[in-house]
């Protein structure tokens, strides 16, 4: 739903549940909006509502939240303040905000610290020291090239391992003809934020809204 298209006024609607995870808002037997609850692979239940009128959205969202038990969540464009407010008014609370970064693949390579080697495999690059795995990076290449994971063992952080992993991954993509990659970072993670702000520009954000179990 794009809330910039909300129109003034609202029809008198009846909210009915038409199937598992599906609700319709009916205006004289005409569908004026619908809501859906889907179970993600991780087991979380995700909500979506599509309606032209804000009051119709409100009725659908509140009915869905009343009908559904347990934890619920939805993801909203961080710039869509009207939709954020609508979901919060319905009963969801702020969960987290993630920022998307665009990363040029021409970053200057950074060498790992002495004693640490980078070992690439088909799906990831692992940082190894003394035979132990101390960090890794994973890149997903579906539709766009995205850094999906960067992690360093806590006792080995602040040594430049994460930066070396990122520049290695970007260099491999550059050699494959890729000009830019993407990463999504939780704004509550200052270390990851600082890392990726050193490589690229922050663009858009997404906000997760949640309701804990009841």
From TrEMBL:
Keywords linked to the UniProt accession: Transferase
Ranges where the N-acetyltransferase domain occurs: 71-214
PANTHER family attached to this UniProt entry: N-ACETYLTRANSFERASE
Protein name: Acetyltransferase (GNAT) family protein
Entries under CDD domains matching the protein: NAT_SF
SUPFAM superfamilies listed in its UniProt record: Acyl-CoA N-acyltransferases (Nat) (SSF55729)
Molecular function GO terms recorded: acyltransferase activity, transferring groups other than amino-acyl groups
Highest taxon, organism lineage: Bacteria
InterPro entries: Acyl_CoA_acyltransferase, GNAT_dom
């Amino acid at each position: 739903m794009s809330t910039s298209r909300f129109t003034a006024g609202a029809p008198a609607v009846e909210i009915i549940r038409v199937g598992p995870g599906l609700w319709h808002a009916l205006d004289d037997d005409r569908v004026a909006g619908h809501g859906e609850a889907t179970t993600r692979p991780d087991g979380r239940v995700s909500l979506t509502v599509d309606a032209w009128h804000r009051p119709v959205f409100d009725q659908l969202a509140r009915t869905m939240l009343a009908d559904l038990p347990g934890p619920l969540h939805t993801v909203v464009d961080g710039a869509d303040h009207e939709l954020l407010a609508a979901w919060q008014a319905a009963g969801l609370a702020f969960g987290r905000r993630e920022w998307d970064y665009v990363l040029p693949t021409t970053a200057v390579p950074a060498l790992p610290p002495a004693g640490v080697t980078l070992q690439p495999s088909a799906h990831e690059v692992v940082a190894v020291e003394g035979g132990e795995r101390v960090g890794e990076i994973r890149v997903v290449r579906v539709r766009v090239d995205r850094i999906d994971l960067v992690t360093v063992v806590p006792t080995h952080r602040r040594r430049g391992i994460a930066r070396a992993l990122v520049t290695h991954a970007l260099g491999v993509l550059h050699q494959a003809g890729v000009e830019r990659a993407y990463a999504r970072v939780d704004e509550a993670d200052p270390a990851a934020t600082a890392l990726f702000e050193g490589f690229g520009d922050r663009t858009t954000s997404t906000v997760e809204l949640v309701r804990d179990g009841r």
